[in-house]
Amino acid sequence: MTNGMLEKNWSTDNGGFPLNDSQVERYISVKPTPSQIRLAENPYYCFIHFGMNTATAREWGTGKETVEDFTIKSIDARQWVSVIKNSGATGIILTCKHHDGFCLWESEHTDFCIKNTDFDGDIVKMISDECKRQGIRFGVYLSPWDMHDSRYGTEAYNDYFCNQLTELLTNYGDVFEVWFDGAKGENAVDFHYDWERYFKLVRSLQPNANMAICGPDIRWVGNEGGKSRKAEYSVVPTGVRDIEKTMNDSQKDESQAASLKRYSSTDEDLGSRSVLEQSPDLCWYPAEVDVSIRKGWFYSADEDKTVKSAKKLFEIYLNSVGNNCTLLLNIPPTNTGVIHSKDAQSLAEFGQMIRSITANPVIEDEVGELTLDKPNIEYDFGGEHILQYAVISEDITRSQRVEAFDLYLKNSNGKYKKVYSSTVIGSKKIIALKGKKCTGACFVIRTSRSNPVIKSVGFYE
Question: Fewer Cβ within 10 Å of end Cβ, the chain: N or C?
């Protein structure tokens, strides 16, 4: 294949789509908020599922637990945060209250909390303080469904829930993400959560926080198996934010966890032109991939053999962070208050693999907007190199524009060979090149919504 084979580019037929028209202008007018931009800049962070279920060795509670059932006496907050930080994560979201209703902080609004146990301290404070000390961000998970509280199912519960939110969002410093779970048992009381009230409260108390998954800022990818779509768009119809639909698609009982892991959403189309042209209202709603390092979400000694290897975690990372998503990886500490050594070892190796992606750069290029006189980008490496990765990012402050692209590598004889073809880029596309030898490369955009704006292109050995 010769250099002349590259002359067909995005500026000629643009995949048969208009490069610019009124619809394109509508699509690219949708852009992320400052908080969503910070999210894209810190795309890997961790869940910590810990609480009453850790003490009772359950995935979901029963609603009949008492404070005496929480038998854990201490935790090693420093170890939790250091293990997670060493994995490359930049934040932690703690399950401050799961479906069982037990609160890990010293709440003034319920007796079913840590202050009435033999545990000495406020776990939310311990983790948030340790996050500050080690320089990573802190977030909170608060389950709307509450098996324990007698107010659930009445308007008084909405008041209670807002009081809980207020405590978490005012007493523990900056919060980067508030995670609202859509799971609810099939036998739970039919009850309307006052979502708009919750959202307004978060915006007023923590204006820089993003809200997921039953929230307006981050959408659930649709499964708990670490999978993402072939084309993961961030510009989608506003109807995708339908909270009730998210709840209906979420777990109805703890046995559904396995089916959610098997669920594949690769055939779903949320953001192509054919979808958007039928949608009068659009929004920036990026996907978050949530997955546990173990079979379950809470620690169980029976699952010590299910800890995912660093290789498997890295595969999930490439499929999420490397495919325009964020990754929320769950790490469940044990009932002795530490992260298990098997999890810690896998995470340490995983962190090394993440750092290896960009450890040995060949070329790192800040590109900018491509116009008619610069449709392709050619790179000369000045000699032969063995490439492991290419990393491409769009400037998402200008929206998500690229719809299809190809990557070619130049052999030592000067001929090009196409090694990768894909759809969208978004905040980040990580391409595993697996040791391909080359002397140069050419990045070719085939289809774009108006002029593509590329933040950076990097090639790494």
Answer: N
